Amino acid sequence: MAFAGRKYYGGRDVKRAVTIADLQAMARDRLPAFVLEYLEGGAEDELTLRRNRDVFSAIGFRPSTLTGVGVPDLSTTVLGRKMRLPFIIAPTGFNGLLQYEGDRLLAQAAAKAGVTFTQSTVSNMRIEQLAGIPDLAHWIQLYVFRSQTFMEDLVGRAERAGCQALMVTTDAATFGNREWDRRNYRSGMDPTLRHKLDMLFHPRWAISVMARGIPPFGNLLDFLPADQQTFARTAIWSREQVEPDLSWNHIRHIRKIWKRPLIIKGVMSTRDAELAAEAGADGIVISNHGGRQLDGAPSPIDILPKIANRLKGRIAILADSGFRRGTDIVKALALGADAIMLGRAALYGLAAGGEAGVARALTILEEETRRTMALIGCRSIAELDRDRLRL
């Protein structure tokens, strides 16, 4: 039973964070309001944002005892590659707004933990800047822009940099209506006076980020004149250039020019999952973009069992949106996901404590996942199925 004295840890030592919620509390203390809103907010009334978390509470476990579990093995295989853990860092943009060189800090923590890192098209760092990180399993995410030259150039750069998979995001051809985020700006990317003043009350963030200047989107710089290579201009250009008429023809073209594993992100129906497989995709991400695009969309957990019934074993099935606990991860794996993708959970760690914060987030989720597996009586990911759940 909750009582008034309970509170999440809100200090500065990430080693004292017990849960992802502790890292979230630390991030909320460090970030100014307009940055926190970007990190936390969703579209319109945020129904989908809340649904992404609430859906897990409706699923229980059916534990087995005396199964000789020992230390559960969390390794799995996705797209033919052995993974130490069943989760992947999802592609996220504006990470330089949370910490200086935030993308590098995420990637370094992922590499040290043996976790795959997915870099966004709108990363604040170029593909090549992260490709040399030792032991990094590096995927790249692609927004399809109007410019075919840009798209083909980015795909070529990703191939030369050694990226192991290409993930095409399909649910952002129209930008979501993030009303609370929009209220923080007078126009464009210019924060209101209130939010500018609020930065003064967050000196640790200001020293890390503002004192060095918010970096532009590194992968877009080659397509803008030198006098327009600013954070605000690259942000605006990226929104203007996203292809509004995105279709399966674009996916088929990308399949022709990219010979490594191809993943389609933003799949929310069995029919689209089947079309992705027919178009040559090697995997899909069941995703509602973290509740930031279509408000009222279902949670990926709502859709996952139906897609797994049809396509399990035919293509890799990943899911994102709302994962904060090892119990969440185990539930998704039992429902048919091959692995899950971590967005905000990793970013809370980044915002709270840089690379050490991301490392702590990954450790927390690894420990929780392993503990949950042991408590329900599963020795490996392969033993998970829906019989382990109470639906």
What would you note in describing this structure?
- The chain is α/β, with parallel strands linked by helices and 391 residues long.
- The protein has a single domain (20-178, 239-384), classed as TIM Barrel (Alpha-Beta Barrel), CATH 3.20.20.
- It has helices at 20-30, 33-40, 47-57, 102-113, 127-131, 148-160, 179-182, 193-199, 203-208, 231-241, 248-257, 270-278, 300-311, 326-334, 344-376, and strands at 60-61, 76-78, 81-83, 87-89, 117-119, 138-143, 165-169, 185-187, 190-191, 262-267, 283-286, 316-319, 339-342, 389-390.
- The strands form four sheets. It has an eight-stranded parallel sheet with strand order 4-13-12-11-10-7-6-5.
- A hairpin with a 2-residue loop joins β8 (185-187) and β9.
- α1 runs antiparallel to α15 (344-376), α4 (102-113) packs parallel to α15 (344-376) and α14 crosses α15.
Main features:
TIM Barrel, 15 helices, two-stranded antiparallel sheet, alpha/beta, 14 strands
Low-confidence stretches: none
CATH architecture: Alpha-Beta Barrel
Q: Determine the number of helices (DSSP H or I, runs of at least 4 residues).
A: 15
Q: What general outline do the C-alpha atoms trace?
A: globular
| Average residue pLDDT | 93
Strand order of the largest sheet: 4-13-12-11-10-7-6-5
Helix percent reads 40-55%
Number of strands: 14
The profile of the biggest β sheet is:
8 strands, parallel
- Rg over C-alpha atoms, rounded to the nearest angstrom: 20 Å
Structurally, the number of domains stands at: 1
Top CATH class:
Alpha Beta
CATH topology description: TIM Barrel
CATH superfamily: Aldolase class I
End-to-end C-alpha gap:
24 Å
Order of helices and strands: HHHEEEEHEHEHEHEEHHHHEHEHEHEHE
SS content category: alpha/beta
> Strand fraction band?
5-15%
